[in-house]
């Protein structure tokens, strides 16, 4: 039903993370009606991280605004922004959650912004195919109203591909581990999540991610020098 | 499913003409999820003429523009027009056709204007519940017209006072100096400026600045420990 909803509005790039009932699925193909081209080009991933790795900008759809500092937009505003980013050459994606309970906090945390639908707060009951249908429609409408989209003075640099950002997280967290930052151990996850949220929110470009990798590397080298008692390497770690 | 689609966007006045499976219908109530208020207030009619008799203005939804001289609009333009008419005190309605073959020419002829959805002409496959969902959504969006700026789920935290940010710059740069990051010396100013620009652009809140100070402090402590050959301090630097 998701494939069919997408096909109505000319969208075809569907990525699945650990589909519950396996893949390929004849049941899915039947429900897709004649949207075989969407089903045929589905790509499978083990993790959400892997599924968004090559993207510059990711929206997470949620039923209601979370207790989160990420920007929240409606489907129209989000679609206009996506159109602008795509026109600028960015690779973008939209995350939809599981049928029953949506995206978990970790998954929302991987996205740049949040999209919610303007549903009646007393009756919100969209299934995933309906959410995809509305988002696909809004994206299509945004393309036909391009004249209404905001103009930008200077072209903002694209956020780095997510895989670069995730590698920065790993690098920083490994170095902080060594430095004893994650203390007490019980707070580890919340401390790491705070850092990831902050770095995601910053919308870092590829050169900026590289700069921060250089910063962490400088501390790594320093620790390595001091641990080996060798001061001669000083100065080799400048970006 | 139609009742449920309507309820998501606060619509409740559903009129049925000769429902195939009779009425009331427990099957319909089950499919409506919790949209009982829509099901309970359904009105039944024998003919489309009777169903629209009290209305001032009627839209007919069709899968594709007919060979007709009626005006054809998209869902957004039609919704804006409906909103204006309702504000002027008009009674309005939207006709949806049967699941398989839509509205016949006679039925379309009863309407004032036609609405079509901007679906891919090579893949148009909306069922009636999806058509109602899209039209209900468009009507809801038309009511919020102009609301394109992002909201925040939680109140966005204010950026930290500049003095806190400047202290972070000083702290980070002193630590990076020690670590040998600013190399060669000639690139010092541009490297430092890049870091400052990035951290300013991120719009860091006071807690976020504190978190980053904690990160730098962890590396400071590690360097201190390693330089003094004392490993006992490990773990004291967690934020």
Automatic annotation (TrEMBL), chains A, B:
The keyword Methyltransferase applies. This is RNA methyltransferase. Keywords: Methyltransferase, S-adenosyl-L-methionine, Transferase. GO terms for biological process: methylation. Residues 2-137 form the tRNA/rRNA methyltransferase SpoU type domain. It comes from the Bacteria. InterPro entries: Alpha/beta_knot_MTases, RNA_MeTrfase_TrmJ/LasT, SpoU_MeTrfase, tRNA_m1G_MTases_N. PANTHER family: TRNA/RRNA METHYLTRANSFERASE, TRNA_RRNA METHYLTRANSFERASE SPOU TYPE DOMAIN-CONTAINING PROTEIN. The keyword Membrane does not apply. It holds the Pfam family SpoU_methylase. Belongs to the class IV-like SAM-binding methyltransferase superfamily. RNA methyltransferase TrmH family. One of its GO terms (molecular function) is methyltransferase activity.
């Amino acid at each position: 039903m998701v494939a069919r909803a997408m096909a109505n509005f000319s969208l075809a790039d569907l990525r699945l993370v650990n589909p519950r009932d396996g893949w390929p699925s004849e049941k899915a193909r039947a429900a897709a009606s004649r949207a075989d081209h969407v089903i045929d080009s589905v790509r499978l991933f083990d993790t959400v991280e892997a599924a968004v790795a090559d993207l510059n900008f990711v929206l997470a759809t949620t039923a209601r605004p979370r207790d989160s500092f990420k920007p929240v937009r409606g489907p129209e505003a989000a679609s206009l922004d996506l159109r602008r980013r795509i026109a600028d050459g960015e690779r973008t994606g939209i995350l939809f959650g599981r049928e029953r309970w949506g995206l978990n906090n970790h998954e929302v945390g991987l996205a740049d912004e949040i999209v919610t639908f303007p549903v009646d707060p007393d009756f919100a009951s969209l299934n995933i195919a309906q959410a995809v249908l509305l988002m696909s429609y809004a994206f299509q409408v945004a393309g036909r109203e391009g004249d209404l989209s905001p103009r930008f003075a200077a072209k903002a640099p694209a956020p780095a591909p997510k895989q670069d950002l995730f590698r920065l997280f790993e690098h920083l967290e490994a170095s902080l581990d060594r430095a004893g930052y994650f203390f007490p151990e019980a707070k580890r996850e919340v401390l790491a999540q705070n850092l990831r949220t902050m770095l995601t929110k910053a919308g870092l470009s590829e050169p900026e991610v590289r700069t921060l990798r250089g910063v962490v590397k400088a501390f790594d080298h320093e620790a390595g020098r001091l641990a080996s008692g060798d001061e001669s390497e000083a100065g080799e770690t400048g970006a």
